[in-house]
Write a structure and sequence with these properties.
Distance between the termini of chain A: 25 Å
CATH class of the largest domain in chain A: Alpha Beta
Oligomer: homodimer
Largest sheet of chain A: 8 strands, antiparallel
CATH architecture of the largest domain in chain A: 2-Layer Sandwich
Order of helices and strands of chain A: HEHEHEEEHEEEHHEEHHHHHH
Chain lengths: 355, 355
Amino acid sequence: MFQLSNLLKNPIRWLGSDGELSDCVLSSRIRLARNLVAAPFPHAASQRDLGLVLEKVTQAAKKSHALARAAYIKLSEMEKVDQRFLVERHLISEDLTRDSHNRAVVIGEKELVSLMVNEEDHLRLQILLPGLALDRALEQAQALDGELGRGLLFAYHKEFGFLASCPTNVGTGLRASCLVHLPALVYTQNIGAVLQELARVGLVARGFYGEGSKVYGDLFQISNATSVGKTEQEFAEAMTAILKNVRGHEIQMRERLVKGAAKTKTLDRLWRAYAALSYCRLISFEEAMQELSWIRLGFSLGVKFDHLALAKVNELIVLAQPAHIQMHAGRELGPRERDSVRAALISRTIKGKGQ
Amino acid sequence: MFQLSNLLKNPIRWLGSDGELSDCVLSSRIRLARNLVAAPFPHAASQRDLGLVLEKVTQAAKKSHALARAAYIKLSEMEKVDQRFLVERHLISEDLTRDSHNRAVVIGEKELVSLMVNEEDHLRLQILLPGLALDRALEQAQALDGELGRGLLFAYHKEFGFLASCPTNVGTGLRASCLVHLPALVYTQNIGAVLQELARVGLVARGFYGEGSKVYGDLFQISNATSVGKTEQEFAEAMTAILKNVRGHEIQMRERLVKGAAKTKTLDRLWRAYAALSYCRLISFEEAMQELSWIRLGFSLGVKFDHLALAKVNELIVLAQPAHIQMHAGRELGPRERDSVRAALISRTIKGKGQ
């Protein structure tokens, strides 16, 4: 049987440090929203409808090549903390956990491919890749979409395109998003202007857990606001170009942080982050993310932190989250205990003593 | 010729970590104020008078056993930064540096004995010992007083005792003071009540640089407010008893910091102090003192900091001061440069790579 805790042993592939422009773009995500003609949209559907959708999607998924050896998990069979674990792992949305009846997730072998069933739409398929790789993610998403479309009849309108619960998803049903690390733009207070510019070109920047969530560790989720008016390829290409531009700004600001008199102050801040993470005995998720942000910045400025690889730092961004800490400990923990377990995990990792 | 910078190579003996109750009382100081009948008090004296006093005191000091191999330094022959260096070393007062004409200091071989000439009084002799050692310091001060008194005629009134510029010093001319480290009383916010209690029994608590100065690193100068009404021995004994009592409170609070749930929080704070001092690239004197305070507290709680001896931590309290940092660098430095040199000195010392 599939054990969630096994996921904890997997490297977080979508945070690999070898992706393109991964000094700034941690990961790229393509999500396609699809609905079956066989049932009303989830918000209007009966449990029977939803059960039917789940059954049909499961059948189609089992025939898919991209989902070979996938895990099929019903939300109703999971504890709240385990659901939260999957949210933290970017495999499901918080919305999916609101009502667990006939809601499910299908997780591909390496966690790079996943399907949510009966979230806002019947089907949301996701490809999550490290670095700036929207084009490749789109290819894979389209391939999976094609495979699933062989067994499922999707709601499609000749003029509008794919139909979806929310008007912003009608058309291609596509959301392209990137997890972007912008510490120097934040530190030099240039981030406001950059976010305004993004809004102007139809992109939105969200916090770490998506819409309405807080920014942790200078990490922003940047995605397209609507999905009409362009082909999928056009979306991906336009967004790739914009993100390269944002990264250009960020790198420029990073360089400024190590020029002249600023350099010592920056090194002071970087090494103090390394020190705090190495020696803390209690640390909140928020503080951990902030200090990890400085460490990531340090790597991109060429600072060598003893024993420490960037991939480990990236992984900690995921592993330091509350539900991950509890999965790591093997039991539910109060906030204070989490801060303690988190500190132990992080300091061991930063000191290079493994996790 | 005597070189001030040579002092930098001396261990700071009055901060030795082997003194009695030195987990709390860093050092004990006895100061005796004396004036010669041969001249008016300094504030009313002409430069000729002051010159005469200086000559007489110097002659008497040169015959003293306790001041064998002492250095004789005229304030007028020193740079401001060097004067400041001696203030930081507790060898002269700030008052002595206000006007340098005919002002001088005599520094005994190990810096445990010193004389200020023409400060507020013609003569102020000082014995400075590690730990709680007011009785021993008093004995040595009296011996030196006796030696000097053979060659000098002190202003003495049968009824009032030794005369001095300031009424609070008339009588024995004695000030007994201890440099006391009270981090747990500060942290647990019990320090206010303790300071009030001290005032009630005729003691005053001052900051790191004496009257009106700021408290750094939870270090307080505790001394008697007046010098009449008791013999020198009675002063020293009463104060010793009170300080043992204050230390009792402090130790009780320290124990509370490592009991139950408080322990992890305390260890977190201690190790973060160690981390910051090990890895900083810029550090102000104030922050350094605060973090060193935590480290000292850690030692008294039995924490083993790798490679680090308490004596080194105590020395840093002196060596981290602005004029010491400049003496260490061999030149005058701006505030920012000092913060940088201080950080380098401290992190090398804390990591056990020597100074």
